[in-house]
Amino acid sequence: MTDIPLTTEERESGTVFAPKFDAAGLVTAVVVDDGSGAVLVVAHMNAEALRATLETGKVHFWSRSRERLWMKGETSGHVLFVDRVLVDCDQDALLIRARPAGPTCHTGAKSCFYRKIEVLDDGPILTPLDT
Length: 131
Fold this sequence. Notes:
Elements: H1 8-13, E1 27-33, E2 39-45, H2 47-56, E3 60-63, E4 68-71, E5 80-87, E6 93-100, E7 115-120, E8 123-128
Parallel strand pairs: 1-6
Antiparallel strand pairs: 1-2, 3-4, 5-6, 7-8
């Protein structure tokens, strides 16, 4: 990783990994199950979380609510093992393909995306996905 300024061409077509962190020092990370392709979680990483993820092969995030680094599964044991990390065209979002060691969501659901929005006459409601 580098913080050297890159031209648009270098950022979009080059080989230098230079993630574009937002004003809070974060980059969005979407984690999908490498086997099924299901979205497991969307969270944020700072430089430290990204470095720890790349070095250990286990997904780490920056918790905005707790204001600290945390490894997914550090208390539950439901670690996300990295298969590969992809970066989008302008390097401001990551797609992490991972193998989950158990449920990903803190609720015990396989994914944090376990409900859908249904629009009824009196407004939208949430209903569980059929699994």
